[in-house]
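Write out the bound-state structure for LLZGTKA7.
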Amino acid sequence: MSGRSTRLIVALDTKDTAQAMRWRAESAGHAGAVKLGLEFTYARGLEAVRDVAGDSPLFLDLKLHDIPNTVASAIGSLKAVRPAMLTIHAAGGRAMIAAARQAIDGTFPDGARPLLLAVTVLTSMDTQAMHEIGVEGSVEAQVVRLGQLAMESGADGLVCSSHEIAPLRAALGEAPVLVVPGIRPAGSAVGDQKRIMTPAQARAAGADWIVVGRPITRAADPAAAAAAIAAELSD
Ligand SMILES: O=c1ccn([C@@H]2O[C@H](COP(=O)(O)O)[C@@H](O)[C@H]2O)c(=O)[nH]1
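---
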């Protein structure tokens, strides 16, 4: 066991505002934050994002990846959304990550700055998928390489799978906030995720946050599914 506490982010992946609000309410006592991302934001816009998040800390998973000027300008439009965490792709490179850092510091007042989290290698990718896009070597090596670059360039933390927590901690120490999707409770459908662990395994590996969507939102009883995951994190 790592000694860190691991908290749950529930991914409200839907285009439907009422549905997102229902899931948020059902998981409220068990989750430390809610995720809204591309699916909901493109369908409903930033005002609806703020409405759905309500007073829950918001993990705004927009995975920004563009030239530095465009990423910085986009972040400038997020002030009213008040995210607690915001994602960019580490593969956007040093200048893009640094521009995101500057934009956050210039947009949000002290005490209200979202954590800047850099997505390393998507948890839906395995070694073969990574090789297909021209990145050789192991997923672990690529995650550590991108993690180092991101932290040097001003990120506060990283999005990775549970499998890369130990090598990231070995390379970067305790400072990075590690947010971990690709979580599948025992017996739940894996779907498109490739690098997975159970909530208890992710906790033992030292995740700060786990991100869970379909195992909660597609469950017959989302509240019970969220409660079971929260119990795994606190056992
Ligand atoms: O590498 C990544 C980065 C982000 N995600 C997001 O996490 C959730 C996972 O949802 P599940 O339904 O539990 O698979 C989803 O919102 C992704 O956009 C990720 O899975 N992997």
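---
The first helix runs from residue 17 to 27.
The pocket of LLZGTKA7 is lined by residues 11, 13, 35, 37, 61, 119, 122-123, 159, 181-182, 191, 193, 211-215 (CB under 6 Å).
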